[in-house]
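Usage

Read records sequentially. Each one opens with the input sequence:
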Amino acid sequence: MQSTFETAFAAVQELASDFKANERHYLSPGYQEAEVRKAFIDKFLIALGWDVNHDHQKNPFEQEVHVERGVNMQGARKRADYAFYIAPNFRDVRLFVEAKKPSGDIATAQNYFQTIRYGWNAQTPVAVLTDFEQFQILDCRYKPDVDTALSHCIQKFHYSEYADHDKFAVIYHLFSREAVANGSLDKFAAGLPKKRGKAVQRGLFKGGWQSIDEAFLEDLDGYRDVLARSFKNRNPQLDGDALTEITQRTIDRLVFIRFLEDKMIHPENLISEFGNKGTAWKDFVAASRKLDGIYNGIVFKQHTILDAAGFKVDDNAFADICEKLAHVNSPYDFNSIPIHILGSIYERFLGKVIVTTDKRATLEEKPEVRKAGGVYYTPEYIVRYIVENTVGKQIEGKSPAQIAEMRFADIACGSGSFLLGVFDLLLSYHGKWFTANPDKAKKAGCVLGDDGAWHLSLKQRREILVNNIYGVDIDNQAVEVAQLSLYLKLLEEETTASARQHQLEFHETILPSLNKNIVCGNSLIGTDILTGQLFASDEERKLNPMDYKQRFPEIMKRGGFDAIVGNPPYGAETAESVIAYLRQHYETLANSLDTFIAFVEKASSLTKPMGRFGYIIPSGWVSTPSCRRLRRFFMASFCPESFVSLPYDVFTGAYIDTMVVTARKKSNDLGGKQGNDSTMNLFVFPIRFKINGTEDFDRFKKIGDFTSWLANPDAEFLVTASSEESGLVAKLRSQKANFSDVVDVMRGLEEFHPRLSKEMQRPARAFNGEMRRYKLNLGDEAFEDYTKEIEAAKPVRFFSGKRILLRQLISRKFRLQAVWAEDMFLTNQSVQSLIPKCKDVDLLAVLGILNSRLISWFFCQINTVARRDDFPKTIIKQTRELPFPAQIEAGAQSRLSRLVEQMLTAQKQLAAAQSDKDKEYYDHRCESLDRQIDTLVYELYGLTDEEIAIVEGNA
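and closes with the structure output:
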């Protein structure tokens, strides 16, 4: 519904007048919250443009306002009264409003704590607490703490101020539907003051500004450390693997119980009561056994150590953890925390294991995590993009019965982020399908809700999970967490009544077994590695080989999975004992042993013809020589559909160039239609942006016939090129010469040695000055006196005489940076030296070509690393292979040489200029010479006006 400030102001003025007319009645203890909501708060929100009563948004799956009416459980409120979304994103809450009855002061520590907790857990920056008499804006950026909650009120309004034009304008322009849709809340939060100092950065001060994922991970690590030490002290025979397993299982149970409590699936609070009947630990074990009979699943499954009568525990330590995690005191609201956030927390949680000695237990990062520099969780918006463009395309237009026959997998699933994404998409698709086909909903088992719409029953959700979702991971703890995450998603919309109804109707536990869906094993190594080889038992256990035909027999008989998605591990260490096996089984590993390469090939072998594939993998695979076989294999196996270049910092704490690749598996019938129109989508620039507060992708364009990629020697993929750009790249590559035909190229020294140089016969100077296009700063401060040794592979001619120096780093404007040098000095590996191969080479002309806009453009087209956000670099092989005009007329070469000579002179004059007038003159002089050089270079390579427009960005 539409709302304007004028209509909203008039409506709220009238509400304020009505409230004042009967203020004594409304402020009396007998006037209840339900009454004030119906008579005033609902109408206030409607005036702000929100469809509170769903008069316009009838589809229950696409409603921007979710309203809770009088939901209480054991005297405790479990959900915020109002949750607001903005279409089309109905996943992420944008704002919570908590309502209270008007009698008494709403500004209590408990009311603030409760309201802030809703917002903090859902990662919304502010929330509203109101009884209509008061309208209070609370800061939700800080970890909820009942002792500090009252300090987090940003602004208060009394109902008498609603009639004030300027004060109501503050409310309207922040909380109206139109304002929220335009990002008002994020903008408002960005302008709020921030705590400063080291204590804030470390999250050390009470009530600190700390995100939900950082805070919960910190607490989980603390719980694990306490439990591990406690278990080890009382049970010294436990080794690291057993301790890792039972501490995680204990934490998983506690988290799952809190989820059941906050979602109101279980009818009573449990954790806060542990210790009331016996010891806290005994009550916990007894509750676990009871819950296992109700829910099933790996979490509550009886454990031979954990649930044993003789297992000893420090009950005080365990009771303290329960007290901190119980709903009464905990800052965490598991009804508000998005499940994918829990997954991101667990992904990092799994990066550590417990290591034991005879008497001690300590937490340490896994070796592979330490080597990789940490654990990096795939952001949810990227997961969503991949899933929608693989699984989403596979199920498009299909009925639930048809989808029931389909199988989707992540074969390196970790904590299950991609599996959650697939499950979420399937649930959403089924819900919309039955809404569009209500005549088939009841027969299929859907449940008619209070909103008059059909909803998926628990039985249907179980069937979707068991039928469609499959995962594999080598880490048993990851498999457990993936199952836990999927169970939480399964129960997300359940209630005590619906869960109980399922048990009564079907006489089965609430959770299905996922032991045949999410399995532990090594996706890359089959059990055939054991044939004829002797591995130590611990080595074999670490390898964990797996036979897909044995673990997924029906799927393999049907030809494989309908889609495989994920973020496979990169650069994982490979044991010497399996290198030969991998090379024998994966043709793409000829020049590299990087595990992601093998995962791409494995995914192909496990995907059905016409199935889909979607991975995040390092960007370098599109151009590096070591991935040449992978590129050829990929093009032979798949029809590419999209390449998406991701920001280099997309994984928090990691700086790595990655891209999303989606494709369709080719049909076995080579004569049949491959389902490809020879064009695909390409995300041109590595940027993120937000729509309605949700990160997403933008700026796609079509690229042309990618089969031409295979025509060049290294089968490089020109993923930044349109069809016109690809054609120009091919034309430049058709030049019969390249730079290696006219110049020798060598990198500088790896390090400088303090010895006498036999070739130089005197101390050598090491360059540490500044290089830019045509600019070489050789001031006295740029040199240090050394006695050097020139390596045999680095002849002195690369460090003396007339030569070109090329910086390894590309400029921020994506330009190669080459300079002229004549003095004798050493350079390191960040600089390439170019010297003429014969006396006929005009090195000044070569410098002009190397610094031209055309050659920089060409380099960036063939090299994804050149478009990095942080440190785009050149490599020597690419410099040598840059195209060079095969034949240059003497006149043209002479003109180019003179222009470059004038440029070098002008650059020196610019550097020496003192007045602004002179600086401006020589700056314009350099720009003019640059344009003349570019024009002449275009002529040397035979570019047309249309092709020049492509390079200049004017096509």
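Summary fields computed downstream for this record:
- The radius of gyration is 33 Å.
- The chain has a mean pLDDT of 84.
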